[in-house]
Amino acid sequence: MPTLRLRRRDEVHAEGVTPGRLTTLVRTGALLRVRAGVYVDGEAWQRTTDTDRTLARARALAMTSQRAPIFAVHTAAALHGMPLFRPPTSIHVIAPVERPGRARGVVRHRGILNESDVVTISGLSCTSLTRTLADLARIGTFEQSVTVTDAALRRQFLHRQHYDSDGAAAFIEDVLAVVGESARGRAKAHRALGFADGRAELPGESISRIRLHQAGFAPPELQVCVAGPGGQDYFVDFGIDEAEAFGEFDGAVKYVDGRMLDGLSTAEAFQREKRREDWIRGITGRRFVRWGWQDIATPDALASRLAQFGVRPSL
Questions:
Q1: C-alpha triplet 66, 7, 10: angle, nearest 5°
Q2: Full 3-state SS string of 164-188
Q3: In this structure, are residues 179 and 131 in contact, taking their beta carbons and an 8 Å threshold?
Q4: Is the separation of the CB atoms in 199 and 161 below 8 Å?
Q5: What is the pTM of this model?
Q6: Concatenated DSSP letters for 51-109?
Q7: pLDDT tens for each residue of 75-92
Q8: Of the four, 11, 64, 68, 146, which is 20 to 30 A from 252 by CA?
């Protein structure tokens, strides 16, 4: 799980860094103070993801706490390996009702946990996945909840392009049962959990679904299968049937991440995508629109991008 190396102050000093030099390194950004007495390489911090930063903050809190914390909400979602969308910089924990006090950068949620509500991941205690999704749906933003819930459903119920919709529905019912144990945020949670769909394969696809909905489009078909040449199948992120169009979230990472390039160079990956897109457009007669993160910043941004290609909601 750890991708960022955390170092205590004494470890930094043991490497020959004097107190004065440590102050300079923090001031210049070469080192970043994650928590009092805990540091991380500044350049590595800038390169990593929101999820990894949340994990680093959680580990730093655990390193400096007298009592092992039980992480919750966004922080627990990160521990479960879920991608986060615009998470808070604060760390969320469940604290006993009787426990007083505050801690800087920590949000304490009061409550009683059942034994089944707590799991251990990489040595850290956090709420179970079911409890985490329920709490995030009640407390987090719609985008945060949908992104994490989509990922949880995808991990459990999407196997080689086959989506177990019955299993996913049963799992969501379990999450809703936990939501029902609290009076806070029930309607909000039902809306987010009802919108979730594990066929969204990336956080950008989850946010794209939300923006399409907000822009007035009918629910798109997800992971549409199009017969390709030589008996292979192509899968397209979105089938926007009302406009006879296909759409894809095109995160630039697919052209630079070695795990996704499948041994191809960036230029070869671009060429392969172009041939695939030409085939789909030619055999279906549908328009094909790609968009990136900048186009899903707001519903209007995505609507504007689609309108450039004549793709508009029917209503």
A1: 75
A2: CHHHHHHHHHHHHHHHCCCCCCHHH
A3: no
A4: no
A5: 0.90
A6: HHHHHHHHHHHHHH-SS--EE-HHHHHHHTT---SS--SSEEEEE-TT-----TTEEEE
A7: 999 999 999 999 999 999
A8: 146
Q: pLDDT tens digits for 206-227?
A: 999 999 999 999 999 999 999 9
**CA pair distance 256, 269, nearest whole angstrom:** 9
- Cα 236 to chain centroid distance, Å, stands at 21
Would you list the domain boundaries of the chain?
A: 1-48, 49-195, 203-307
The tokens describing 255, both together, are: 């052209």
In this structure, what token pair is assigned to residue 50? 């929101």
Question: Rounded to a whole number, what is the distance in angstroms from the first to the last CA of the chain?
Answer: 46
Evaluate whether 255 touches 263 at the Cβ level (below 8 Å): no
Taking every pair of C-alpha atoms in the chain, what is the biggest distance, in angstroms? Answer: 67
Question: Residue 90 half-sphere exposure, CB side, CA atoms within 13 Å?
Answer: 13
- 206-218 burial, b at 16+ Cβ within 10 Å, e below that, comes to bbbbbbbeebebe
Low-confidence ranges of the chain (pLDDT < 70): 1-2, 97-102, 251-265
